[in-house]
């Protein structure tokens, strides 16, 4: 059960689901419909993908749909949003490894068509790699669908507060909140990389369709702000508002602030 809402408190249409599983299952079905519609006309699909805890259930649902024959990823190309600087692809905390373990290793995708920025570039080499990543997205025909989580500081990808609407794939310094949120995964704040490569806001906004996902009470404040604040670099997710085809998938816990009754 879900309710679709687009009201005065939000310019981004959002849909509230009982829980993350229900939302993820619904989004997985939508993505499969799009992939199958493209395949039926001989077209490939290009996906922009995210890491973190948020999309895990989405990937589980997509894996299930692939295993039972409802969708194939043979004609799908993917580009991930970001990667930590300094981590090799086989590092346990690298986003390449995350994607392989949580998604790519379980579907019929050609790994050569899966792209994650390399974390093993020097700061000097990063600009060239980032430009090449933008080129690769363009050569693939652009992103059809982009999946996004949201950080507690409003980041999308690693576009931290201060990121500009016209930003492109680049190397940047991670924000304190982002690093603190990753500290457990890395066994302590001191082990969390200080920099990362991320697609830019403008790169993300070039996707034809964008899905913004938020689950749990911990995301309730930021998702309410992201959906109801005028576009500002202070909360990079607010830039999504200028996109013509964006939808937020939210569970009840994350929607609790958004839907709180307005006091007179
Ligand atoms: P999370 O991170 O999915 O682990 O909550 C989301 C993000 O920081 O973009």
Question: How would you sum up the global shape?
Answer: globular
User: Averaged pLDDT, please?
Assistant: 94
Structural class: alpha/beta
**Largest sheet features:** 8 strands, mixed
What is the β-strand count?
11
Bound molecules: 2-phosphoglycolic acid
Kindly report how far apart the N and C termini lie: 30 Å
* Count of discrete alpha- or pi-helical segments spanning 4 or more residues: 7
- Provide the β-strand percentage band: 15-25%
Strand neighbour order, sheet with most strands: 1-2-11-10-7-3-4-6
Radius of gyration: 18 Å
Helix content: 25-40%
Q: Which parts are unreliable, with pLDDT below 50 for 5 consecutive residues or more?
A: none
Summarize the structure.
The chain has 264 residues and is an alpha/beta fold. 31% of the residues lie in helices and 18% in strands.
